Amino acid sequence: MKQTAVLLGREHRSTFRDHVMALLPAGGNLNACLTCGACASGCPATGLKDMDPRKFLRMAALGLDDQVTTTPWVWMCSMCQRCIYVCPMKIDIPQLVYYARQSWPREKRPKGILGSCDMALRSDTCSAMGTSEEDFQFVVEDVLDEYRETQPEFAHMQAPINKSGAYFFLNQNSREPVTEPDEMVPLWKILHLAGADWTYATKGWAAENYCMFMADDENWKHIVEIKKKAVEDLGCKVWLNTE
Amino acid sequence: MNVELLTLSEVEEFSGNEGNFSVRIKKNPRYVDMDKCIACGLCMQKCPRKVDDEFNMGVGKRKAAYIKYGQSVPLKYAIDAEHCIYLTRGKCRACEKFCPTGAINFEDREKHLSIDVGAVILAPGFHPFDPSGFDFYGYGRITDVVTSLEYERMLSASGPCMGHLIRPSDHTEPKKIAWLQCVGSRSTNRCKNGYCSSVCCMYAIKQAVVTAEHLNEGIPQQTIFFMDIRSHGKDFERYYETAAAKGIRFVRARPHTILAGKNNMGVTMQYTAEDGRMHCEDFDLAVLSIGLEAPEDGPVLAAKFGIELNSYGFAQTTDFEPVRSTRPGIFVTGAFQAPKDIPQAVTEASTAACEAARALMPARGALTHEKTYPAEQDVTSQEPVIGVFVCSCGINIASVVDVDAVAQYARTLPHVGFVENNLFTCSADTQSLIAEKIREHHLNRVVIAACTPRTHEPLFQDTLREAGLNGFLVEMANIRNHNAWVHQALPEAATQKAKDQVRMAVARVAQNDPLRQLKVDVVQKALVIGGGVAGMNAALALADQGFDCVLLEKSDRLGGNARRLAATDRGQKVAPMLTRLIERTESHARIKVLKKAVLRSAVGSVGNFVSKIEVDGDTRAVTYGTAVVATGAAEYQPREYLYGQDERIMTHLQFDDQLAQNEAAVGRARSSVFIQCVGSREPQRPYCSRLCCTHSVKNALRLKTLNPEMNVYILYRDIRTYGEREDLYKSARDLGVIFIRYGLDSQPVVSRKGDDLFVEVFDPVAQLPLKLYADYLVLAAAVVPHDHQALVELFKCGVNADGFLNEAHPKLRPVDMSVDGLFVAGLCHYPKPMDESIAQARAAASRAGLILAKEEMQLDAIKSYVTENCDGCALCVDVCPYRAIKLEQEKIDGRSHIVTDPALCKGCGLCAATCPKEGVYVHGFTLPQLKAQVEALLAEATA
């Protein structure tokens, strides 16, 4: 099947790339591509949706904004930054992907991410699972009791909640308390053995921030601010986010 | 004799001005007396301390008593004070005990000396990039990841694996090998080397090709992962094509990460091809093609000498003064100036010598030494009295060959008047001893039974001359390399063979006649052919050295192709430079410019040529000692891409004219398209024109500067902005120039519809066909050589398969032509940018100056000569490759005969081998000499 040629050259087409370059320091080096393919060779999303980081950047460079701003490939990027790590020109492809996500209408963005972001916005727990303050507290205390009983060497282990003035404020991914509560324990043990002074909180405890993945700047910021307030309210020195 | 080597030395202080510098030097102790050391290697053998061998990149060990490598100059051992057991712990001295000449000197101390010099040449070389910091390639962690320099040593016959290729992990032969290009080059992320190292593509291809020769079994599978293949040197593109045809796989991809194979043996890596497909492949070995960095101590050196470095740490120079540092009188050469390959580095070494010679012109010859010898005694009427000196070479020969038996045997041979055994026949004290014995025993021929004449014959010839004998009355029997070293297990047979070798040498030397080295008077004037930038630079460099020059230009004005060029690669304006250059050339008292001039004839040879030159219709004769050929080249006239059918389509020189005349109009264009490799790298013209990539990139940059909104596209096959030119490529990309790659099988298509001009091309990364509007279409047309046939006929010089004039040897003699006394510079040799043309022109002037500086020249003695048997059959005339033989018209005693020209003869012996009647011989290799040798061999064998 012969593809129709893309007509280029009459006008300046690449508005999307220019827009992103204006936002990034040194334009994210987006123009500097040697098309060497080191990024594509190391990208976990290469080949998905017939796309890879090099091709994506190339299409942006050619000004094929329609494709660049609509390919669902951008949602398959894990933001791992393997591309920029080895790129000889240090091209900020992750940021280009980020802004391509932002160019999608909010309601068209992937349902899972969108739903999780919206759920987190509903309460001060910031939980994408919608777990309430009470449920979180109950699960933590319940699991802690069980381990203190069954594992005598951890009989004095703590999992404090809302401990004012603790040194570390620890976030918790909200999937664990709901689906895999036992997965929370190894970190408690480490902190216990290290003698760390830490605490969970009932507000702002959820570690994840799907609004960031959705490139929803405003709500990303909102979620971060809630968590920041929770840390400050308890007077903690260090905020530990395990995500 | 006029070069003093100061090894283990460093500059401590430097002061003064051009023509009068003072250098204070610290000479570190070698602990070996250079006059006594005969490089036998016993100290190294006996030294108990093993050290990582830095020359072999730490692959393998050396001793604390060592030479860096077998070809070291000077070939003298040294003791590494940092590792020597005695020097670090006060005990051992094994080397001292075993050294047969007493050369070890532990009392050696650091010395300081001051010397006055008029000019300085800095050539500290480069530093190989260390890839340890690239964690994604695993170098240093994954055993079977090596650098290209380590691999080079692994391949080398004199390397740690003795040329038997094995991989580090399990010492098996690697069959499947991957090269990763641009490691530490063309990158500003994990390193700061934005430039291209210029040489890695070619060395990787060479290594891949050579690998096949080092495997004992199986079929090698070599893969080179690259961004652009840069085979822009003379005959390099052909080498690349041949390598590909031989099955070496070239993959345009960059693997992201190298992972260790199973049990840390071999490697595995993923890479995405240009079409976006992911591949995962295992290799037995990965080679990182590391780049060239400025020397680590470059900044210290620069500060000491008060010169400036560029942002990459290389010495700052300009395109018009390619080897001049920022301080007058200090010149830089080699990779310290910029990454470059060997031909370029050797050329620019001569350029630096030229600049130094120019700077020191008034003092030329003031400090040179010439050796004198006693009067030579006439031995022609004497019976041969042969002295035989049998060398033990320490234990090198004596441990296998019974040297006493050989000496005893030599005494029985005819004409032998004296025989002696020496521990080291080549040592300095043995030379005085040989001279003494010659006088004492009235010896008139000498046989040295020792090692190879390749390294030692000049030494013994010199010893004979010092004893008043002709140097050609010595013969060598190589009983070491050809015998003791290869027959270690068979001492008796080896001894017998040594006797045979000595017998043959004795038989032959008895036939040796004294030979004279012919001297020719040198006409101290040069002819420069071609009045472009190269020709004018050559003429001025010669004239500034004090030599008269005739500059011949075929057109009615000087300047050549440079008249059409706007700026050099570093952005220096060409026109003002050219005006000054022409002015200086035309007004120089020592240069005579002949315009509208054509060379009509050339006779004679090095030192003394005569040519008829036609100047505007009149013919005149010019005599000269040497000539520089700088006839330039032309731009290819394309037949492709609708060239000639639309005025918007032009070659890059035409586009330069357009930019010069109508810059504003060009700036209004909305879209400009460049097509690279028009007429280059195609089956009918398979070389790369070297300068077009940079030229187009420069013009693209100019367009983007004129009008940032203009769409500029460069359609290319490989971008070859080698060296620091890579910065231009980067700037062009940064400004938004779009580079689209095409292949020979997917060339762009140019079409017109109405008033619109279009270029269709397939973008291999986007995997989309593109159709580009073109207000201007610039064709990067090839550089094509002029027709050199007339020149080749006149001078008997040669051209390569592409029609460019040939150098005598690309690495060893890159500006000499195969005809002695002729030199080549500029585009007629190969396409090159202006800085390289200028460097080559001055290098040619330096080489030509070596001839012109002498009033008479000594030629080699090994030359053909006519005997009375010649009857003028002229068979030899046809076979002589140097046209050194002519059939004489005048007969002698009614017989025809030939005459040979010793100045043209190279002593190859084709004539003597062809002649059916011994009418022509070559001195030193006459039939009686060869016959005596063979008969001596057969006589004993049949007895």
Supply Rg of chain B: 31 Å
Total count of helical runs of at least 4 residues of chain B: 24
Structural class of chain A: mainly alpha
Strand content of chain A: under 5%
| Fraction of helical residues of chain B | 25-40%
Query: What form of chain A results from the Cα inertia axes?
Result: elongated
State the major sheet of chain A: 3 strands, parallel
Strand content of the residues of chain B, in percent?
15-25%
Q: Structural class of chain B, please?
A: alpha/beta
| Distance, first to last CA of chain B | 49 Å
Give the topology, please.
The complex is a heterodimer of chains A (243) and B (943).
Chain A: E1 6-8, H1 15-23, H2 38-42, H3 53-61, H4 65-68, H5 82-86, H6 93-102, H7 111-122, H8 133-150, E2 168-170, H9 175-179, H10 185-194, E3 198-199, H11 210-213, H12 217-234, E4 238-240
Parallel strand pairs in A: 2-3, 2-4
Chain B: E1 9-17, E2 20-27, H1 42-46, E3 50-52, E4 61-63, E5 65-66, E6 78-79, H2 85-89, H3 94-98, E7 111-117, E8 120-122, E9 127-128, E10 145-147, H4 148-155, E11 176-183, H5 200-211, E12 221-225, H6 236-245, E13 249-251, E14 258-260, E15 267-272, E16 278-283, E17 285-290, E18 292-293, H7 298-305, E19 330-332, H8 342-359, E20 386-391, H9 403-410, E21 416-422, H10 428-440, E22 445-449, H11 453-466, E23 474-477, H12 480-484, H13 491-509, E24 519-521, E25 525-529, H14 533-544, E26 548-552, H15 574-587, E27 591-594, E28 597-605, E29 608-615, E30 618-624, E31 626-629, E32 633-635, E33 649-651, H16 652-661, H17 663-667, E34 671-678, H18 692-706, E35 711-716, H19 726-734, E36 738-741, E37 749-753, E38 756-763, E39 768-773, E40 776-781, E41 783-785, H20 789-795, E42 822-824, H21 834-852, E43 856-858, E44 864-866, H22 875-879, E45 885-892, E46 895-900, H23 910-914, E47 920-922, H24 927-942
Parallel strand pairs in B: 8-19, 10-17, 11-12, 11-17, 12-13, 20-21, 20-22, 22-23, 25-26, 25-31, 26-27, 31-42, 33-40, 34-35, 34-40, 35-36
Antiparallel strand pairs in B: 1-2, 2-7, 3-4, 5-6, 9-18, 14-15, 15-16, 24-43, 28-29, 29-30, 32-41, 37-38, 38-39, 44-47, 45-46
